[in-house]
Amino acid sequence: MTETAKAPEASAPPDTSGQTDTNVAMVEMPPWWRGAIFVGERQTDVVFPAAVPIRAAMQALIKLLNKDGATRQGYIPMPETTAYELQQVNGITLDASRSLLELGVADGVPLVLKPGVAKETFKPVTEDRSASLAKQVKDETSEIKPEQALVFGGIGIGILVAAASALLIRTHLLEPTWWPAWVICIVLAAAMLAAGWGIGRHGRHGDLSDTLILGALIPAATAAATGVPGPLGAAHAWLAWLLVTAILVVLRVATDRWWWLSTFALALGVSLGVGVGVRWLFGVSGPIIAACLMWVALPLVLAAPGLANRLAGLRPPNLELPTGAGVWERNPDEPDETVSPVVPATPNDQPYPDVVSPEDLRRRNRHSITAHRAIIAALMVQLVATTWGAIHAGSPRLWMIEVVAGLGLVSLLGRAWITRDAKVVAALIGGILLTGAVVVAKLAVSDAQTVPATVTALGWLAAALVGIGVLTALVGLPGDLSPPTRRALQYMYLLAMSLGFPFLLWGIGLLTAVRSR
């Protein structure tokens, strides 16, 4: 038999019999599709509106098929509340939001009507009458994945190992003759490194592998600190850093990863290791060492791009100015987003003779950027820590330390102004703010009975520098400085460098300590 599936009222053409052609245009009837629809083994010939979305006419089609089936013996009516879908005979499901005309289904092509496949639905914990709210909850929340569960398990292992390491250190301090703590820590570190390497070797569960490897650094540092005889002190801390850095460097060389963490540990530990060594060997005063290291951070910030390039295997740029403003800036002949040397290379210049491919050059450049960020972050940590150690309210040379520290902060602000890497700018501004705050905080918590008015004034000066740093960070954009401002910052940087020399003269106490021994 042949039946006609009527379109719903929204899609049915209006009755225009009572209207004339003069005032209302005739509305054309939608085209019709004629063909056979199979429901199971039963075939029904129907006429279906081809210009109406399939979903809009589906209910009328179900009623039509049920009406036709009622005349047949043994027919089971199709539930009208069930979702159905139309398919081609090859199993391809037609998009219910589109019409047969849009899908290009020709007349006479048989179609198959089947119940829709039950898709995974979201059931909110609290039922709400708004489906949009339930969808928002589904979009903004997600179940924990197996990979994430493994990472959380690795973090838990690291926390337990850290607690065990702290307990072993405590036991070592109370009873050094007990079973050597460093042996237990070495076993823990070796087991975690082996587990992390074994898991990461197959290329799966990389996050869990990284978590275990990072956790292994804790017992490794504990083993180095407790394996040397004598009470725990600066020397033990430096040996712990040495072992951790060695592990990270080996991992970086073996896997070409861990660039940021290994470079950060290396840059932070070299200067602090030198200070610890001088303190250990010659017994020099801690404030003197801290003051010298505070000044050393300034030229190292200037040399950070070159050091990063050397670590990545690239030839460092030849910086013409202390601020680097004369080399690394935009070339007028290049797009606005391009940063390259202003001075072009000569034809005979081979800056990267050992680079084997453009991919290798991009890889090294990416490592150089990562290493530069790590070096700056380590130097800012060093600057904050050494400033805290160098500031003492009762020191007769406090005014010199604060003046040089203030000029150094201004010079670092100039570096942040001409730097284009947002993460480096954030590290420099953060170091400036924390260092200025450390000066004020150290004077505030000083146990000196009387603080000279000069010290108080210089403390307020440091607080003003913090405010200046905040304002300039908000209004200053990298590279948007006039040539006179750049030149002023250059001389400010040179002044800060030259005032570092009195620090070294003040550190002549090093030579006195050596001669006395």
From TrEMBL:
Q: Where in the cell is it found?
A: Cell membrane
| Pfam families linked to this entry | EccD (PF19053), YukD (PF08817)
| Primary residence | membrane
Superkingdom classification of source: Bacteria
Q: Which InterPro entries match?
A: EccD_transm, T7SS_EccD, YukD-like
Membrane-crossing residue ranges in chain numbering: 149-169, 181-199, 211-228, 234-251, 258-282, 288-308, 371-391, 397-418, 425-445, 457-479, 491-514
Bilayer disposition of the protein: Multi-pass membrane protein
Q: Which family does it belong to?
A: Belongs to the EccD/Snm4 family.
Name this polypeptide is given: ESX-2 secretion system protein eccD2
Which species? Mycolicibacterium vanbaalenii (Mycobacterium vanbaalenii)
Instruction: Name the gene behind this protein.
Output: eccD2
